[in-house]
Design brief:
This protein is mainly α. Helices cover 82% and strands 0% of the residues. The protein is built from 6 helices and no strands. The chain is elongated and about 45 Å long. The relative contact order is 0.21.
Length: 114
């Protein structure tokens, strides 16, 4: 999901925060297909997977932007990027809608992950 999110974000030139709920639904579906037992554990795994997908996607977007400026590949830039710089880049590229979609994604992960 992170690779698809990053590719679409770079193609459109925006963070595409609306993909966070899709990441949550994807995680819930993958947990159901893997026959994970229903209940709180599966819901927690869905939330954890969704948080991981969102954080990793935004980290890679920040790393890709920084890497383009420095002539580094996205993976090289992601390894060298610090949390403070990544946080600032993400803060400047996102808006309230992106945060709202991320919050919605957590609710959807919990609901469909059960």
């Amino acid at each position: 999901m992170t690779a698809a999110w990053l590719a679409l974000a770079m193609f459109l030139g925006s963070p595409c925060g609306w993909l966070a709920p899709l990441a949550a639904l994807d995680m819930a579906l993958m947990l159901r297909l893997s026959a994970a037992p229903a209940g709180r554990i599966r819901a927690a795994l869905a939330i954890l997977g969704t948080v991981t997908a969102v954080v990793l996607s935004y980290w890679m977007m920040a790393a890709t932007q920084m890497g383009q400026l420095l002539g580094l590949s996205p993976l090289e830039s992601a390894q060298r990027l610090g949390p403070v710089l990544a946080g600032e880049l993400v803060r400047h590229m996102t808006n309230g809608w992106d945060v709202a979609f991320a919050a919605l994604a957590l609710v959807l992960a919990w609901r469909f992950g059960r």
